[in-house]
Design brief:
Distance between the termini: 21 Å
Radius of gyration: 17 Å
Shape: globular
Length: 220
Amino acid sequence: ILFDMDGTLVDSTPGLTSAWRRFGKDYGFDGDAALEATHGVRLWDSLSRWCGITDEDKIKEEAIRFEEEVINGGVNALPGVHDLLNKVREGASADVPGWTIVTSATNIYTPRALAQSKIDLPAFAKLVTANDVARGKPNPDPYLTGAKVLNVDPKKCLVVEDAVNGLLSGKAAGAYTLAVTTSSTREAVATAEPNWIVPDLTHVSAQWVDGKIELMIRTQ
């Protein structure tokens, strides 16, 4: 299983809203419009587009400032996340990890957001962040990298996402896709034509069977 983070496992909406409004004021654009347009897109790409930053070092510097604003706004686990991850962790091992997180956030913000949400990772976990790919979502690179980290064929992976750009990335990688409507409407995520749509992860349960994760998805 390849989980997106923001909007799928954790709710960072208040901090994201505050950050985009702050940057909109600093750089002269509509922060609320940027918040909506950048959903699921790698932060570096979003800052380049909306802030007009072309210098790579400046983008990374501003990304750290942006993500600090998000963290200060508060990050919390979404409904069903802890229960599902507890089940997924039960049969995981270094040889067969079974799951990882594939996020458009940086490798600085990601562990801080997970810690603030009280989401514990196994010692052997290898996350995929914005730092690990040349092209972010909706390109397939993030989820292809996630499958490679798990040493699994992407076609045998399930991508769990809340954003259209993330769902398109998963589909482009050849994975099955499960959309949660935690940050977008059902109609919005349906445009990416995911295999399944659920309100949140309380509608998904997991167990390990013969070294593989078996999921039950309740779409109704």
